[in-house]
Each structure stands twice: as structure tokens, then as C-alpha cells.
Amino acid sequence: MFSKKFCLLAKGQYTLLRTPNIMIPLFPFEILTKIGRLLSKQDQAECTHVCRAWKIPFQESMWNTIEILSDAKLDQICSSTTNGMPYHKNGHLVRTLFLEKWLKAEDRQLFTVQKRFQKINRLYIREKSVINRDFNNMADWSRWKSLTHMEICISGLYLENESRDFLKILECLPNLRWLECPQRYGYAWPYTLEEFDTIHSCIPKIEYLSLVLDLAPITEKHKTIIAETQPTSYLKVIKLRMNKVDLRWLRYFAHKYPNAHTIEWHSDIRSDTSNAFREEAISMFSTLSCAFQHLENILIDGTSGREWWYITFLDLLCHFKTTKAKRIEYRMRYGHSNLDLEKRIIHQCAQTCPTVMSLNFISSDLDLPDPTMIPVTIDFCPSILDLRIDALSLPIAVDILLDKCPSLKRLRLAVKSLSISKEATGTHGLRLIEFVGSKICTNVFSYLSFRCRCLNYLRLTKMEVVGPMFQGGCVCLDMSYTHLEYLQLTCVTVSASDGDDFNVSTVINLIALDQLNRVPQQDSVIKAALATKDIYPVFSKLLPWAHMYCIWDGGYEMIKLRKLVSEEAAYVQSYYQSFEQNKETYGSAHSFKRRRSYLGQLDQEHWKEDLDRGFVLFRCGSVRNYFIDTLGYYDDEFWEKLQTKFM
Asked: Do 10 and 35 touch, CB atoms closer than 8 A?
């Protein structure tokens, strides 16, 4: 990919041409073409007039992509008058073609488009961009035999016989390597095994295949086809969105795709997959010499009722033990009809492939009240480096999770609550933590800090933190053993409580960040790190302070955060040096009720009235970069990039 410097360079040459005694650099044709693709249409047009050597490459850039977004544009392209002449003259330069959703091009118009643009290699056809009336009567798909990449919402064309018409299209596209059929929600055409296998006969070089379909039941005749079908060595990625499927299809897939490195199973509506053929499917696996040897990435994304398909698929992988999958993601949506099957799938995901380094579990409403249930279900996983659990109805015992995953480097939990059930049993090499949308007690922070001495990255988003207030008005998030490269706190609220309940009436709106810049003295008794001893705020230096407040805008409340200036920070620290005395004196003078937000924030002007609620002290060994705010600042790209750092 070329940088912006190339874009500026190309744009600047037009100016240089008019400057006396300036020679224009002779760039290779290919570089000029790629530079042109980074420019606007206007700049491309200007560059065609710079010199003779630039005309053709920048013309190619101008015509590289055509987007038909309106009826007017379609009529212009199909016109036989002077309006359509530019497309007739330059259509051979077009390589990428888009047909917009609901364009409703007729078959004769599609035929004209095919004649105009016969050299395209990428095609995008959205839902209802072509109408089904007289479909394929005139259109000649063989004119697009150069296609290597096609995304077509075939179900969105509402064809009378989808499988028949789709296969007619594909048999004209032998060079296709990427085929993606976006979903039309809630609809899937049934394909027999013969029809599905014909897809591969039509496009033998396909490497990426993503389809929305239902798979018809396997018959006795199909078993012979399964045994005799030729594997496709080209295909690397298979993504199937199926609402109805027979378990015995797994035997076909295992034989057909020996070189697949990515498999995704999707379903969108609840449709029970019977286990009636499970024993027969498993017996069919025995006729295979291997299955999915090169598989690295697995995504299981479905609804309740599909559990037996997933279990049987994982059984297939376990049977051969040759699969070297590195990433498994399991998503379950729209209800959980059988918790025992759910737990079985989670266990198999973690245990089927001993090479798995990344596990991701997502559930919309899986409800298991015992916080130890998921860690125990996952069981011992020595190879896992990256673990993510998104299930806002689940409580999680963090300590047991760490025990089960001793090699874990990255942990992301978006769950109901986080807790610890026992004292630390030893150090852990965890490097990165993301906690999202959970309730957590302050003792979890001290536990993680003491046990995970290598922790460098911490991200808390939409968190409710509960902890006791010590003498001096301090609720402490104590991570004294932790030296952070990056700390991000967004939408984090802290409530002072001796129990586990988050109480809005005790929400604390002042926070200070304290860096010890040293490693605390090692204590041979681990439980000392968790002791709820009194913490007196001894301020040896002026700390950075922030205050959370509310702005009322009509009927809306906006929670904001501001950093206190040095005079305000000094005042706050002086106040908390004699908290009990000042609270009694200052608090009685402001005992009347002032308007607060739904989370307990005042307006900015009256921030001092939050002093008697106490303050949050986030204490760590050191932190190089930190970001604290009340807005939903996620910066997911930054945190995703960190994943490769630990894999």
C-alpha cells in the first residue's frame, strides 16, 4: 500500500510541469497506476494531462472502479447515445463493479452492463440490484469469465429456483477464487448434496467460500457421492450459514476440504438439529484417514437447537487429534435450551485441540449463578494464551480461571460480576486485562496485582466497583505490585460499601492516581496482599486528581470528567488529611439536598460537596500512559493490535 506521500507527489507533478527547467520523474507504469487509485477523480483527471507517459496509467486509475448507485447512472451506462459513449470507449479499463441495493436492473440492462465491462475481476451485487423477471434470458455471464472475486446476494434476487439459476451463473465463472453470498435474513434455499458438489465443479479454483443455504438430508445414494467426491485442494476458508442440516454432512466437509484453515458455522433462526444420525455420522468418520489437518480458526455462531451439530463437529476433530487449531470462537444467541449441552460444547472447545491459543466465548443470556462453573467447565488448558468471555449474565471467579489457564497472557471478560474465591496460589504471567460491563470488588485488584506481576496493560470499561471505605475517606484500588505501560478507565463508577452491593447513593466522584514508582516489599504470606487494613491517605506529593460531574441538557444527563487544577488538588489533599473532622464540619454546612444525576453526580460548580463522599485512590507501582474518562472511548483497534504482542 502506498503512503500519502505518493498521493501528494502525484498531485504535485501537475504544478511542477508548469515550472521551467523542472524534469518530471519517470515512475514505472505500475507505480503510477497504484498512485492514481489513491487520488480523487478530479486529481486523476488532472494527472492524465501532465504528460504522455502519465495519460494511460491515470486513465486506468480513473476507470478502475464503477459504482452503479442510481437508475440514472444505470440508464447512462446502457444508453446507445453520446451519454453512454465514455463507458463504451473505456469499459475495458474497469476492474471492479458495484451494483447498488434495490437498483432493480432488468435482464436486458444487465446484459448491456456485461457487454460494457468485460474485463472486471471483482463484482458486487447487492440485494434486489437485479430483478428476477426474465432473469438470465439475455444476460451472458460468460462475458465475466475473468471474475476472481464476487459478492452476490443471491437469495436477495428472489429467484424462482435459486439453486438452478445460481449454478448456471457459476458454471460461467471458472476463475472465481472468492465467492461470498451475503445473507437475506431468515431465508435459506435448500441445496441437495449433488447441487452443493456441483458448485465446486463449476468453480474448481475457489479459495474463499461463504454461502447462505439449507442442506437437504443425506440419502443412501448420497453416501456413494460422499465417498467418491474429489477433494478441493484450493479452498482455504469455508463459511456456511445454515438453518437446517443433517449431521452426516460433516463427513462430506471433512473429506472435501482437507486444506481449509478457517471454518465458520452460522445459524440465525432456532431450528433443532436432531441427533438421530449422530451414531451413523460418527461411524462414517472412521472411513476417513484424516480430517481438517490444516485447520487453524474455528467460529461456531448459532442459536439454541444446534448443539448436536457443534458437538459432533468437535467430536470429529477430537477423533483424529491431527487438527492444530489455534483460535476457537463460540457464540450462542437467542436462548439456551439445554445447559448441559452448552457446558459440554464449552468444555470441548477448550479441550478438543491441545494447540488452541485463543478462546472466545460469547453468550447473550447464558445464566449460571455459580462463578466457578465456567472456569471448572473450561478445565485445565495449558496452551491458551488469549481468553475472552462475553456473557453479561455470568459471574466469573477470576482466581480459578487463572488456575485453569496457567499460560494465559491476555484476558478479556465482559460478564455480570468478577470475584475471587480463595487466596492466591502462586504467581501468574498474565500481561493484559480487559474488564467490560461487570461489577467487581476492590479486593480483586489487589489479588491480581499481587499474583500477576507481569501485568502491563489494564482496561476497565463500564465497570461498577465496590469496596470498603477506610479511615481518611479512601476507597483504594490497590495495584501496588503492578507496573503498567497503559491504563484505560472509561465509564468506571465506584461505590463505597462493606458488602458486595453497588449503591448509587454512595458513589464516589473524586479519583486520584498514585504511583509508588517502586515494587512493594515482597511478603511471604500472600494473604497480606488481600488484607483489609486501614489505609490512611499520606500524601507525600501532589497527586493528579479528577472529578466526575454532570451536565443537564434538556432531558439528558451527560456525565463528564475534568482534571483538577493544582490549587484544587492541594485543597482536596488538605481536606482528606483530616477527613473525619472536615466531613463533620463541612458536611453539616451543606446538608441540604442538591440535584444529582442518576449515578450520583453534581454539577461542576458544586464539586466540593462531593468531598464528604470520600475519594477513590488508584494505586500502582508505575504507569507510563493513562486515559481516564466517562465517555465510551473504546479504541478497540489499539487493544486488538496488542493481541499479536502476546501470541
From this structure: yes
How many separate domains does the chain show? 3
Is 44 in a helix, a strand, or coil?
helix
Other C-beta atoms within 10 Å of 353: how many? 24
| Residue 11 domain flag | yes
Nearest to 421 by CA among 408, 435, 406, 403: 403
Provide the grid cell at 523: 511478603
Cell 434495490: give the residue. 102
Question: How many C-beta atoms surround the C-beta of residue 178 within 10 A?
Answer: 17
Residue 406 counted as domain residue:
no
Q: What is the DSSP letter of 434?
A: E
CA distances from 258 to 12, 41, 227, 235, 585 (A): 51, 45, 14, 8, 77
Q: Percentage of the chain with pLDDT > 90?
A: 51
Distance CA 105, CA 572 (A): 69
Produce one character per residue of 587-598: b if its CB has 16 or more CB atoms within 10 Å, e if not: eeeeeeeeebbe
Task: Say if residue 60's pLDDT is above 90.
Answer: no
Q: Which triple of cell numbers denotes residue 568?
A: 484544587
Residue ending a domain, choose from 356, 382, 398: 356
Q: How confident is the model at residue 19 (pLDDT cuts 50, 70, 90)?
A: very low
| Confidence at residue 21, expressed as pLDDT on a 0 to 100 scale | 44
Question: Whole-model pTM?
Answer: 0.85
> What are the C-alpha distances in Å from 322 to residues 11, 257, 290, 291, 354?
54, 14, 7, 7, 10
Question: Across 69-158, where does the E strand assignment appear?
Answer: 96-99, 122-125, 149-152
Question: Domain boundary residue among 310, 327, 356?
Answer: 356
User: Which residue range forms the structural domain that includes residue 30?
Assistant: 4-62
Q: What pLDDT does 457 receive?
A: 97
Question: Exposure of 94 by Cβ count < 10 A (0-12 exposed, 13-18 middle, 19+ buried)?
Answer: buried
Is residue 423 included in any domain, yes or no?
A: no
Length of the chain: 647
Place of cell 486515559: 627
10-49 exposure pattern, b = at least 16 Cβ within 10 A, e = fewer: bbebbeeeeeeeeeeeebeeeebbbbbebbeeebbebbbe
Q: What CATH code is carried by the domain that includes residue 291?
A: 3.80.10
Average pLDDT, the chain: 85
Torsion-angle region of 626 (φ positive above 0: left; ψ -120 to 50: alpha; else: beta): beta
Cβ pair 66, 94 in contact under 8 A: yes
Assess if residue 455 is contained within a domain.
Answer: no
Is 77 in a helix, a strand, or coil? helix
Reading the block at residue 3, the C-alpha cell is 503512503
Q: What 8-state DSSP symbol labels residue 521?
A: P
